[in-house]
Amino acid sequence: ILDHWFESEPLKATLATDAVIGAMASPHTPGSGYVLLHHVMGELEGQRGAWGYVAGGMGALSQAIARSAAARGAHIFAEKAVCHVLLGRDGQAQGVALQDGTEVKSKLVLSNASPQITFLELTPQEQLPKDFVQRIQQVDTVSPVTKINVAVDRLPSFLAAPNTHDGRPLPHHQCSIHLNCESTHLLHQAFTEATHGHPSSRPMIELCIPSALDPGLAPEGCHVVSLFTQYTPSVLAGGRSWDEQARNAYADTVFDCIEAYAPGFKASIIGRDILTPPDMERIFGLPGGNIFHGGMSLDQLYFARPAPCYSGYRSPIPGLYLCGSGAHPGGGVMGAAGRNAARVALEDFRRL
Questions:
Q1: Which DSSP letter does residue 225 get?
Q2: How far apart are CA 12 and CA 290, in angstroms?
Q3: Are the CB atoms for 122 and 84 separated by under 8 Å?
Protein backbone atom coordinates (compact mmCIF):
# COMPACT_ATOMS: atom_id res chain seq x y z
CA ILE A 1 0.00 0.00 0.00
CA LEU A 2 2.76 2.44 0.94
CA ASP A 3 4.80 1.59 -2.17
CA HIS A 4 1.74 2.35 -4.29
CA TRP A 5 1.26 5.84 -2.88
CA PHE A 6 4.72 7.05 -1.83
CA GLU A 7 8.27 7.20 -3.17
CA SER A 8 10.25 8.48 -0.15
CA GLU A 9 11.62 5.58 1.90
CA PRO A 10 11.85 7.56 5.18
CA LEU A 11 8.22 8.66 4.74
CA LYS A 12 7.08 5.11 3.97
CA ALA A 13 8.96 3.74 6.98
CA THR A 14 7.54 6.41 9.29
CA LEU A 15 3.99 5.65 8.15
CA ALA A 16 4.74 1.93 8.42
CA THR A 17 5.22 2.29 12.17
CA ASP A 18 1.43 2.60 12.46
CA ALA A 19 1.13 -0.67 10.53
CA VAL A 20 3.13 -2.57 13.16
CA ILE A 21 2.48 -0.57 16.34
CA GLY A 22 1.73 -2.97 19.17
CA ALA A 23 2.08 -5.95 16.81
CA MET A 24 4.81 -8.56 16.59
CA ALA A 25 4.88 -8.06 12.85
CA SER A 26 7.04 -6.57 10.13
CA PRO A 27 5.84 -4.02 7.56
CA HIS A 28 6.24 -6.96 5.14
CA THR A 29 3.83 -9.15 7.15
CA PRO A 30 0.58 -9.77 5.22
CA GLY A 31 -2.33 -8.03 6.93
CA SER A 32 -0.22 -5.26 8.46
CA GLY A 33 -1.94 -2.85 6.07
CA TYR A 34 -5.12 -3.21 8.14
CA VAL A 35 -3.31 -2.16 11.32
CA LEU A 36 -2.22 1.00 9.47
CA LEU A 37 -5.82 1.66 8.46
CA HIS A 38 -7.03 1.05 12.03
CA HIS A 39 -4.76 3.78 13.37
CA VAL A 40 -5.67 6.45 10.81
CA MET A 41 -9.38 5.78 10.22
CA GLY A 42 -10.61 8.04 13.02
CA GLU A 43 -10.59 11.79 13.50
CA LEU A 44 -9.93 14.35 16.21
CA GLU A 45 -11.94 17.57 16.33
CA GLY A 46 -12.91 17.14 12.70
CA GLN A 47 -9.39 16.40 11.45
CA ARG A 48 -9.17 12.94 9.87
CA GLY A 49 -6.37 10.66 10.98
CA ALA A 50 -5.27 13.04 13.74
CA TRP A 51 -4.23 12.01 17.24
CA GLY A 52 -3.98 14.16 20.35
CA TYR A 53 -2.73 14.34 23.91
CA VAL A 54 -5.06 14.16 26.90
CA ALA A 55 -4.66 17.29 29.03
CA GLY A 56 -3.33 16.22 32.43
CA GLY A 57 -2.01 12.88 31.16
CA MET A 58 -3.80 9.71 30.09
CA GLY A 59 -5.20 9.17 33.59
CA ALA A 60 -7.23 12.34 33.18
CA LEU A 61 -9.33 10.56 30.55
CA SER A 62 -10.28 7.82 33.01
CA GLN A 63 -11.08 10.46 35.63
CA ALA A 64 -13.31 12.36 33.19
CA ILE A 65 -15.26 9.18 32.41
CA ALA A 66 -15.53 8.46 36.15
CA ARG A 67 -16.86 11.95 36.92
CA SER A 68 -19.42 11.67 34.13
CA ALA A 69 -20.58 8.29 35.42
CA ALA A 70 -20.73 9.45 39.05
CA ALA A 71 -22.79 12.49 38.03
CA ARG A 72 -25.37 10.04 36.66
CA GLY A 73 -25.50 7.95 39.82
CA ALA A 74 -22.73 5.39 39.29
CA HIS A 75 -20.90 4.00 42.31
CA ILE A 76 -17.18 3.48 41.69
CA PHE A 77 -15.12 1.04 43.73
CA ALA A 78 -11.47 2.01 43.15
CA GLU A 79 -8.61 -0.33 44.02
CA LYS A 80 -11.06 -3.19 44.58
CA ALA A 81 -9.96 -6.30 42.72
CA VAL A 82 -12.70 -8.54 41.30
CA CYS A 83 -12.50 -12.19 42.35
CA HIS A 84 -15.17 -13.70 40.10
CA VAL A 85 -18.46 -13.08 38.33
CA LEU A 86 -21.53 -14.09 40.35
CA LEU A 87 -23.94 -16.41 38.56
CA GLY A 88 -27.51 -17.34 39.45
CA ARG A 89 -29.00 -20.82 39.31
CA ASP A 90 -30.12 -20.11 35.77
CA GLY A 91 -26.54 -19.25 34.76
CA GLN A 92 -27.33 -15.55 34.45
CA ALA A 93 -24.71 -13.01 35.58
CA GLN A 94 -25.84 -11.41 38.85
CA GLY A 95 -22.88 -9.19 39.73
CA VAL A 96 -19.30 -9.64 40.89
CA ALA A 97 -17.52 -10.75 44.04
CA LEU A 98 -14.55 -8.68 45.21
CA GLN A 99 -11.43 -10.18 46.73
CA ASP A 100 -12.29 -8.65 50.11
CA GLY A 101 -15.51 -10.68 50.14
CA THR A 102 -17.88 -7.88 49.12
CA GLU A 103 -20.57 -8.85 46.63
CA VAL A 104 -21.77 -6.21 44.16
CA LYS A 105 -25.13 -7.29 42.75
CA SER A 106 -26.20 -6.23 39.27
CA LYS A 107 -28.56 -7.37 36.55
CA LEU A 108 -25.81 -6.89 33.96
CA VAL A 109 -22.01 -7.15 34.10
CA LEU A 110 -19.76 -5.42 31.55
CA SER A 111 -16.09 -6.39 31.62
CA ASN A 112 -13.40 -4.05 30.36
CA ALA A 113 -10.76 -6.66 31.20
CA SER A 114 -9.22 -8.80 28.48
CA PRO A 115 -11.13 -11.84 27.16
CA GLN A 116 -8.54 -14.09 28.85
CA ILE A 117 -9.05 -12.56 32.29
CA THR A 118 -12.82 -12.22 31.87
CA PHE A 119 -13.50 -15.77 30.72
CA LEU A 120 -10.53 -17.83 31.91
CA GLU A 121 -10.04 -16.31 35.37
CA LEU A 122 -13.24 -14.56 36.47
CA THR A 123 -15.92 -16.86 35.02
CA PRO A 124 -16.66 -20.44 36.21
CA GLN A 125 -15.25 -22.65 33.44
CA GLU A 126 -18.03 -25.22 33.72
CA GLN A 127 -20.50 -22.55 32.61
CA LEU A 128 -18.70 -21.91 29.32
CA PRO A 129 -18.75 -24.01 26.11
CA LYS A 130 -15.49 -25.93 25.69
CA ASP A 131 -14.92 -24.69 22.14
CA PHE A 132 -15.34 -21.10 23.35
CA VAL A 133 -12.78 -21.60 26.13
CA GLN A 134 -10.38 -23.18 23.66
CA ARG A 135 -10.78 -20.24 21.29
CA ILE A 136 -10.03 -17.71 24.06
CA GLN A 137 -6.98 -19.75 25.09
CA GLN A 138 -5.71 -19.61 21.52
CA VAL A 139 -5.95 -15.84 21.08
CA ASP A 140 -2.56 -14.51 19.99
CA THR A 141 -1.38 -12.01 22.59
CA VAL A 142 2.31 -11.76 21.67
CA SER A 143 3.55 -8.21 22.19
CA PRO A 144 6.77 -6.52 20.99
CA VAL A 145 6.31 -3.35 23.04
CA THR A 146 8.55 -1.97 25.76
CA LYS A 147 7.34 1.38 27.08
CA ILE A 148 9.90 3.70 28.64
CA ASN A 149 8.84 6.83 30.53
CA VAL A 150 11.59 9.39 31.01
CA ALA A 151 11.94 12.58 33.06
CA VAL A 152 14.44 15.09 31.62
CA ASP A 153 15.71 18.45 32.81
CA ARG A 154 15.59 20.02 29.35
CA LEU A 155 14.08 19.54 25.92
CA PRO A 156 15.91 17.21 23.52
CA SER A 157 17.80 19.18 20.88
CA PHE A 158 17.84 17.27 17.60
CA LEU A 159 20.61 17.67 15.05
CA ALA A 160 18.01 18.02 12.30
CA ALA A 161 16.27 20.90 14.12
CA PRO A 162 18.31 22.33 17.03
CA ASN A 163 16.60 24.10 19.92
CA THR A 164 16.45 27.86 20.13
CA HIS A 165 18.37 29.73 22.85
CA ASP A 166 15.25 30.30 24.97
CA GLY A 167 14.62 26.54 25.17
CA ARG A 168 10.97 26.82 24.22
CA PRO A 169 9.26 23.86 22.52
CA LEU A 170 9.40 23.95 18.73
CA PRO A 171 6.67 22.50 16.46
CA HIS A 172 8.35 19.10 16.19
CA HIS A 173 8.52 18.80 19.98
CA GLN A 174 4.71 18.91 19.99
CA CYS A 175 4.37 16.05 17.52
CA SER A 176 5.15 12.35 17.38
CA ILE A 177 8.86 11.88 16.61
CA HIS A 178 9.90 8.64 14.89
CA LEU A 179 13.49 7.44 15.18
CA ASN A 180 15.31 4.53 13.52
CA CYS A 181 12.71 4.72 10.77
CA GLU A 182 14.85 5.68 7.79
CA SER A 183 13.73 2.57 5.89
CA THR A 184 11.25 -0.27 6.17
CA HIS A 185 14.27 -2.61 6.03
CA LEU A 186 15.38 -1.26 9.43
CA LEU A 187 11.95 -2.06 10.88
CA HIS A 188 12.00 -5.55 9.38
CA GLN A 189 15.50 -6.14 10.76
CA ALA A 190 14.40 -5.06 14.25
CA PHE A 191 11.42 -7.42 14.02
CA THR A 192 13.60 -10.34 12.91
CA GLU A 193 15.93 -9.93 15.89
CA ALA A 194 12.99 -10.10 18.30
CA THR A 195 11.61 -13.27 16.71
CA HIS A 196 14.91 -14.92 17.67
CA GLY A 197 14.57 -13.78 21.27
CA HIS A 198 16.86 -10.75 21.09
CA PRO A 199 15.73 -7.18 21.83
CA SER A 200 16.26 -5.06 18.72
CA SER A 201 19.74 -3.60 18.49
CA ARG A 202 18.27 -0.63 16.63
CA PRO A 203 14.69 -0.50 17.90
CA MET A 204 11.81 1.39 16.37
CA ILE A 205 11.21 4.41 18.61
CA GLU A 206 8.17 6.65 18.76
CA LEU A 207 9.04 9.60 20.98
CA CYS A 208 6.46 12.01 22.37
CA ILE A 209 6.92 14.97 24.71
CA PRO A 210 3.41 15.68 26.07
CA SER A 211 4.74 18.34 28.46
CA ALA A 212 5.66 20.45 25.42
CA LEU A 213 1.91 21.04 25.03
CA ASP A 214 0.83 20.46 28.63
CA PRO A 215 3.40 22.20 30.91
CA GLY A 216 1.61 21.11 34.07
CA LEU A 217 2.99 17.58 33.63
CA ALA A 218 6.50 18.59 34.73
CA PRO A 219 8.27 21.28 36.77
CA GLU A 220 9.25 24.44 34.91
CA GLY A 221 12.09 23.79 32.48
CA CYS A 222 11.72 20.02 32.82
CA HIS A 223 9.79 17.61 30.62
CA VAL A 224 8.38 14.10 30.46
CA VAL A 225 9.25 11.98 27.44
CA SER A 226 7.19 8.95 26.44
CA LEU A 227 9.04 6.29 24.44
CA PHE A 228 7.02 3.61 22.67
CA THR A 229 9.61 1.10 21.47
CA GLN A 230 9.71 -2.12 19.48
CA TYR A 231 10.76 -4.88 19.18
CA THR A 232 11.26 -6.78 22.42
CA PRO A 233 10.32 -10.44 22.95
CA SER A 234 8.33 -11.50 26.00
CA VAL A 235 10.87 -14.24 26.70
CA LEU A 236 14.53 -13.70 25.88
CA ALA A 237 16.69 -16.16 23.94
CA GLY A 238 17.50 -19.29 25.90
CA GLY A 239 14.30 -18.96 27.92
CA ARG A 240 15.73 -16.14 30.02
CA SER A 241 13.28 -13.79 31.72
CA TRP A 242 13.56 -10.02 31.87
CA ASP A 243 15.59 -9.09 34.94
CA GLU A 244 16.79 -5.64 36.00
CA GLN A 245 20.03 -6.04 34.07
CA ALA A 246 18.22 -6.93 30.83
CA ARG A 247 15.75 -4.05 31.26
CA ASN A 248 18.51 -1.50 31.80
CA ALA A 249 20.62 -2.88 28.95
CA TYR A 250 17.73 -2.47 26.52
CA ALA A 251 16.92 1.01 27.83
CA ASP A 252 20.55 1.99 27.36
CA THR A 253 20.35 0.79 23.75
CA VAL A 254 17.28 2.98 23.20
CA PHE A 255 18.97 6.00 24.81
CA ASP A 256 22.12 5.48 22.71
CA CYS A 257 19.95 5.59 19.60
CA ILE A 258 18.26 8.81 20.71
CA GLU A 259 21.64 10.30 21.61
CA ALA A 260 22.74 9.87 17.98
CA TYR A 261 19.82 12.05 16.86
CA ALA A 262 19.82 14.43 19.85
CA PRO A 263 23.27 14.75 21.49
CA GLY A 264 22.98 15.50 25.18
CA PHE A 265 19.79 13.52 25.68
CA LYS A 266 21.38 10.95 28.01
CA ALA A 267 22.87 13.68 30.18
CA SER A 268 19.42 15.28 30.57
CA ILE A 269 17.78 12.17 32.06
CA ILE A 270 16.84 12.46 35.73
CA GLY A 271 14.50 9.46 35.96
CA ARG A 272 13.26 6.52 33.91
CA ASP A 273 10.61 3.80 34.13
CA ILE A 274 11.04 0.69 31.94
CA LEU A 275 8.02 -1.52 31.19
CA THR A 276 8.75 -4.71 29.21
CA PRO A 277 5.94 -7.02 27.96
CA PRO A 278 5.95 -9.09 31.21
CA ASP A 279 5.80 -5.83 33.22
CA MET A 280 2.78 -4.67 31.19
CA GLU A 281 1.05 -7.97 31.91
CA ARG A 282 1.84 -7.91 35.63
CA ILE A 283 0.94 -4.25 36.25
CA PHE A 284 -1.94 -3.64 33.85
CA GLY A 285 -3.40 -7.13 33.36
CA LEU A 286 -2.56 -7.16 29.65
CA PRO A 287 -2.13 -10.77 28.46
CA GLY A 288 1.38 -11.11 27.02
CA GLY A 289 1.74 -7.38 27.55
CA ASN A 290 -0.41 -6.82 24.46
CA ILE A 291 -1.86 -3.30 24.54
CA PHE A 292 -4.81 -4.38 22.38
CA HIS A 293 -5.82 -7.41 24.55
CA GLY A 294 -4.91 -9.53 21.52
CA GLY A 295 -3.22 -9.14 18.14
CA MET A 296 -4.93 -6.99 15.51
CA SER A 297 -4.38 -9.62 12.82
CA LEU A 298 -7.13 -10.33 10.32
CA ASP A 299 -7.94 -13.71 11.91
CA GLN A 300 -8.72 -11.93 15.21
CA LEU A 301 -10.86 -9.04 13.96
CA TYR A 302 -14.47 -8.32 13.05
CA PHE A 303 -16.68 -11.44 13.52
CA ALA A 304 -13.77 -13.33 15.10
CA ARG A 305 -13.09 -10.87 17.94
CA PRO A 306 -12.88 -12.34 20.50
CA ALA A 307 -14.44 -15.49 19.04
CA PRO A 308 -16.77 -16.41 16.17
CA CYS A 309 -20.44 -16.02 17.13
CA TYR A 310 -19.45 -13.75 20.05
CA SER A 311 -18.33 -10.57 18.32
CA GLY A 312 -21.51 -8.70 19.30
CA TYR A 313 -20.36 -8.00 22.90
CA ARG A 314 -22.63 -10.67 24.40
CA SER A 315 -20.95 -13.76 25.85
CA PRO A 316 -22.02 -17.38 26.50
CA ILE A 317 -23.06 -16.14 29.98
CA PRO A 318 -26.38 -14.23 29.76
CA GLY A 319 -25.95 -10.76 31.20
CA LEU A 320 -22.12 -10.76 30.86
CA TYR A 321 -20.66 -8.48 28.19
CA LEU A 322 -17.18 -7.73 26.93
CA CYS A 323 -16.53 -4.01 26.37
CA GLY A 324 -12.71 -3.65 26.19
CA SER A 325 -10.06 -3.79 23.48
CA GLY A 326 -10.53 -7.53 23.11
CA ALA A 327 -13.97 -6.87 21.60
CA HIS A 328 -14.80 -5.45 18.16
CA PRO A 329 -13.32 -3.22 16.71
CA GLY A 330 -10.18 -3.76 18.78
CA GLY A 331 -7.61 -1.55 20.45
CA GLY A 332 -7.05 2.18 20.45
CA VAL A 333 -8.16 5.04 22.69
CA MET A 334 -11.50 5.65 20.97
CA GLY A 335 -14.19 4.11 23.18
CA ALA A 336 -15.92 2.37 20.27
CA ALA A 337 -16.05 -1.06 21.92
CA GLY A 338 -17.41 0.41 25.16
CA ARG A 339 -20.06 2.48 23.44
CA ASN A 340 -21.21 -0.42 21.27
CA ALA A 341 -21.29 -2.80 24.24
CA ALA A 342 -23.30 -0.30 26.28
CA ARG A 343 -25.92 -0.03 23.53
CA VAL A 344 -26.24 -3.83 23.33
CA ALA A 345 -26.45 -4.12 27.14
CA LEU A 346 -29.11 -1.39 27.33
CA GLU A 347 -31.11 -3.15 24.63
CA ASP A 348 -31.06 -6.36 26.68
CA PHE A 349 -31.75 -4.49 29.93
CA ARG A 350 -34.98 -3.06 28.57
CA ARG A 351 -36.17 -6.62 27.89
CA LEU A 352 -35.44 -7.82 31.44
A1: E
A2: 25
A3: yes
